[in-house]
Write a structure and sequence with these properties.
Helix content is about 35%, strand content about 15%. With about 270 residues, the protein is an alpha/beta fold. α8 runs parallel beside α9.
Length: about 270
């Protein structure tokens, strides 16, 4: 796996430091990939809501400064609970940003904070607006951009059912551009009686586009990836056994010592590294 970091871990530091310098600190702690999260990009983004846009010249300078790193772009996109125009300015700007930072493998990682509720058991439970993913994926695929969704408010098994159904309405080539960003800790917080690591193991490998590691203890966010409510070591082992070799993002919470916590997370997961 490729050890990664995410810019929303740096909310405290972004108040008085440039994003580029924070990326440099993450790289010095062992990060090989950085997820650039909307609302946590400092001067590299502008606007809010539908008016949000990446600042492309600054994004280009960031990528140019770190040729040894890879990047993806992440955003809150209510693609499951609202209708999103695939040709609209917001989605097109996000695809353009993903292509700018993503190099040979552009990737737009999304999350729909409004998709919470009872676990979806099948197509009858999906919001009608979720079928908009068909055209969003088709548009992303036409531009060569991977589109993945984090399981913010649903179990991994429910999100996998949705992806399978959407893929069935696309060509096989287009369908491969849609997948998931599994975050088992998200699931454990909302559905404590489920086994998210087992559900991760049940996912087809081609559906796993990127993964988030985080930890909680007694439901409260823990500053690093370590022991706690989720067996993060078991999560790592499941991914290894499946042959997953993509990015593993440490989505650790903001903290004054966030970079020390990032390094500690890597040491916990890969003690021989």
């Amino acid at each position: 796996m490729i050890p990664g970091a995410i810019s929303n871990s740096w909310r405290i530091q972004l108040a008085d430091q440039d994003l580029s310098d924070l990326v440099e600190q993450a790289q010095s702690q062992g990060a090989q990939h950085v997820e650039l999260r909307q609302t946590c990009l400092g001067d590299y983004e502008t606007g809010e809501g539908n008016d949000w846009r990446p600042v492309f010249p600054r994004m280009q300078s960031l990528v140019d400064r770190f040729p040894q790193l890879t990047f993806d772009l992440a955003m809150a996109l209510p693609c499951l609970t609202q209708s999103i125009d695939p040709k609209g300015g917001l989605f097109q700007a996000a695809l353009a940003g993903a292509k700018l930072v993503g190099g040979d493998s552009p990737h737009l990682r999304t999350v729909d904070p409004g998709a919470a509720g009872d676990a979806w058991q099948g197509p009858d439970d999906f919001p009608e607006t979720a079928w908009g993913l068909v055209e969003l994926t088709r548009e992303a695929a036409s531009q060569g951009v991977i589109l993945s969704m984090e399981n913010s408010g649903q179990p991994l098994s429910s999100m996998a059912r949705l992806v399978s159904e959407v893929r069935s309405r696309l060509s096989p080539e287009e369908g491969q551009f849609l997948g998931l960003c599994p975050d088992p800790t998200n699931q454990l917080r909302r559905f404590p009686d489920t086994d998210p690591v087992a559900e991760l193991d049940a996912l087809p490998l081609d559906m796993i586009k990127i993964v988030h590691f985080k930890q909680a203890r007694n439901g409260d966010a823990h500053p690093s990836v370590d022991t706690g409510d989720l067996d993060c070591g078991a999560m790592r082992d499941v991914l290894d056994s499946k042959g997953y070799s993509g990015q593993a993002i440490m989505e650790i919470p903001p903290h004054q010592d966030v970079f020390e916590n990032l390094s500690a997370s890597y040491r916990f997961l890969w003690p021989e590294g």
